[in-house]
Amino acid sequence: MTITINELESGIGLLINGQIFVVTEYHHVKPGKGAAFVRVKMKSLRDDSVLERTFRTADKLDDVVLEERELEYLYQTGDELYFMDHTTYEEVPIPQSLLGDSARFLLENLTVNGISYNNKIIKVTLPNFITCQVAASEPGIRGDSTKSGSKPARIQTGATVPVPLFINVDDWIKIDTRTGQYVERVQR
Question: Which of 11, 99, 100, 104 can pair with 159 through a Cys bridge, CB separation 3.0 to 4.6 Å?
Answer without folding.
Answer: 104
